[in-house]
Amino acid sequence: MAYPKPHAIVIPYPYQGHVAPMINLSIRLASRGFTITFVQTDLNHHLISKAQNLPAADVDVFDDARKSGLDIRYTTISDGFPLEYDRYLNFGEYWETMFRDFPDRVDEIVVRTMKLADESLEMPPFFCWLLMLPLRGQQP
């Protein structure tokens, strides 16, 4: 019996210093046969495009990896705040909203990814709220 190709949905902790290690992990997993869906916050995507002096639509951190044959998809997700919102100054409000609202945003991406790939999901509990996702559309 052939097993389906493993698929990891990678969502870095929403601070810049956590993005590069997760990009490296994603490339390593993809080079070992995983399909990767990398989910970046809109803010981090914006900051990367600003640092590269490129329009946000032109930034794709996995372009070279895909050209080498790796199966890595890239998408962005809103954290619920506009780009100019100061997440450090409003740390408490930011994280309250993240724990309350972000799981629903992640759930939408997970369900969309699963439907496109027609696959099931296994996930490690890196974020405690991942275990609370209702996973709409997931078969019991």
Automatic annotation (TrEMBL):
Write out the similarity annotation.
Belongs to the UDP-glycosyltransferase family.
Superkingdom classification of source: Eukaryota
- In Swiss-Prot or TrEMBL terms, this protein is called UDP-glycosyltransferase 86A1
Organism per entry: Sesamum alatum
The UniProt GO MF terms for this protein read: quercetin 3-O-glucosyltransferase activity; quercetin 7-O-glucosyltransferase activity
